[in-house]
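Give me the 3D structure for Phosphoribosylaminoimidazole carboxylase C-terminal domain-containing protein.
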Amino acid sequence: MLLVNEIAPRVHNSGHWTRDACVCSQFENHIRAIAGWPLGSVSRHSDAVMTNLIGEEAEDWQALAGENNCCVTLYGKREIRPGRKMGHVTRLQPLTKAPC
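Predicted structure for Phosphoribosylaminoimidazole carboxylase C-terminal domain-containing protein (100 residues):
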């Protein structure tokens, strides 16, 4: 007999930048793998720096969204609390070297 308390197969949040900087994100490839589809290219088309939005930093989302090459992702949490991760921004730049 096998008892399972919880299974949470998911991608890791440190790879959120792949949504904005790669041809096929880790999220899309996760679903492709589950669905039995061929995996997409993980080639990076941009350099990326991802920064978490903690607590009240998320209130500046409109200014961040107005920055060139800045992608804003809010996690949909209703209550802002100190220290709570509310979203992230990914700033993109042209590649400085060829992707691996």
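The two ends are 44 Å apart (CA to CA). Let me know if you want a second pass.
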